[in-house]
Amino acid sequence: MRPGIGAVDALTRRELITGAAVAVAAASPLARGITAALAAGGPQDETLGAFADTIIPGRRVDRTDLGFAIPPRAIAGVDPDPGAVETDVIALYHHRLVGFDLVAGAFLADLETRALRFGAPFVRLDFARRTKVCVEGLRYGNPTRLLWEAAAAVPFAAFAGALAPAQTAARSGGYRTMGHPGAAPAGYADASYGRVLARERTLTGSLA
User: Fold this and answer.
1) What is the pLDDT of residue 2?
2) For the chain, which terminal residue's Cβ has fewer other Cβ atoms within 10 angstroms, N or C?
3) How far is CA 177 from the centre of its chain?
4) Where are the domains of the chain?
5) Which residues of the chain are modeled with pLDDT < 50?
6) How many CA atoms lie within 13 A of 69 on its CB side?
7) Could you give the CA distance from residue 30 to residue 201 in angstroms, rounded to a whole number?
8) pTM score, two decimals?
């Protein structure tokens, strides 16, 4: 079942940037011909997750930061830290403001066509062959590269906390992995606020 994300409709500007990339891809002739593919069953979350895990690999877990179940073959498990799937990339792919569902059918068709050249559907490939498929799809000579770039932008937005329940390291796997403490209403005691920053540039050391 596709995750319900009504509780996370309010997103950051990262999502708007991602949505803009998807909108560009949606204008391509290839994307305009996918209505039948979408009607036949919709995007395959396991495959989308496996693609996102190839872009930003992560550890094997059963649940995302938001608590959604993770499809069994979505994560290859080649990295010990949280990756795109754990940080709710599948939910972000389906978010109404991102709009990736409009181009998912075209992307998945191209992804699977290329995967079969390496011997199996994408989710059945090992990580090395998944990587080769993605390198092929993202190469500059690929006429559908814009579609692949749109698909690859979503994992980065998810990992950067676009759907984090709270944009803090305690609640976001991506923030913890990057070493980013996240939001702090009262600031951080060891931050540079209020300190002399540049004596050689201003009389007071401030940036103003």
Assistant:
1) 45
2) C
3) 15
4) 8-178
5) 1-43
6) 5
7) 54
8) 0.71
